[in-house]
Amino acid sequence: MTTNKNNSVPKKDDNYTHNINRNNERSLDRRGFMKTLAGAAGVFAVASLPWGALAAKELMGLADKEYPHQKITNVNDIAVGDSVEFHFPSEHDSAVLIRLEESKYVAYQNACTHLRCPVYWVKEQKEMVCPCHHGVFDVNTGAPTAGPPRRALPEIVVHVEDGAIFAVRVKRYEA
Amino acid sequence: MKRSYFGVIILCITLSMNIVFTQLLVHQYYHENYINVLIYMTCNIILFPVAIFVYKKEKNKGGANYEKK
Ligand code: FES
């Protein structure tokens, strides 16, 4: 910008917006919107990478994982119709063991398949209930029977030996 | 003034496909169908360059007297 000898902007050039062209505001809006959409597609692409990586890891590693058998509890410590919580296969996977009959035990990883709230065994209802959004699971199969969950709870194979109950492995979903 | 909605619509479609694939991907992961997870991941990743391409192609369309640079 030119200045006169008083070092101030002459009147006729006193125009701070001479280089701002507002004619294309609308087309910029549309473009900005498209930019957002393309960016969101990028976020989705990046966000699916970890899942793919985990899947590839599973595929290369192990078909059916064997964990060391883990003692859950003693047979004497759990009455028929009661449940105990335990962790299997790792410390971070909470699970629940339910004694349905004298010699019938079932165990599930009890992170709800909806949003991973812990699922509880409700003795009176003979159902497993998720308190978060009232998901209900069938105790014999782990299949969801009501509420938002769509997937069955992963079942844990248990094994009774010398008056103690052991967790053997996590059953794979069939199909 | 002439508007061009083509790019916007295509991008909206890619984005909704992204959402659908992501949903399927997560479900397939928990169903332990890991091959399907990889397929959906590839779909999601391919959609990104597609979106960029559409954006590049469409960004200057529409608008009244747009000054070409
Ligand atoms: S987290 Fe269990 S029903 Fe939503």
TrEMBL record, chain A:
Pfam families: Rieske. Keywords: 2Fe-2S, Disulfide bond, Iron, Iron-sulfur, Metal-binding. It comes from the Bacteria. Residues 1-24 are annotated as: Disordered. CDD domains: Rieske. Residues 70-167 form the Rieske domain. GO terms for molecular function: 2 iron, 2 sulfur cluster binding; metal ion binding; monooxygenase activity; oxidoreductase activity, acting on paired donors, with incorporation or reduction of molecular oxygen. InterPro entries: Rieske_2Fe-2S (IPR017941), Rieske_2Fe-2S_sf (IPR036922), Rieske_Fe-S_prot (IPR014349), TAT_signal (IPR006311), TAT_signal_bac_arc (IPR019546). This is Rieske 2Fe-2S domain-containing protein. It comes from Aquibacillus halophilus. The lineage of its organism: Bacteria, Bacillati, Bacillota, Bacilli, Bacillales.
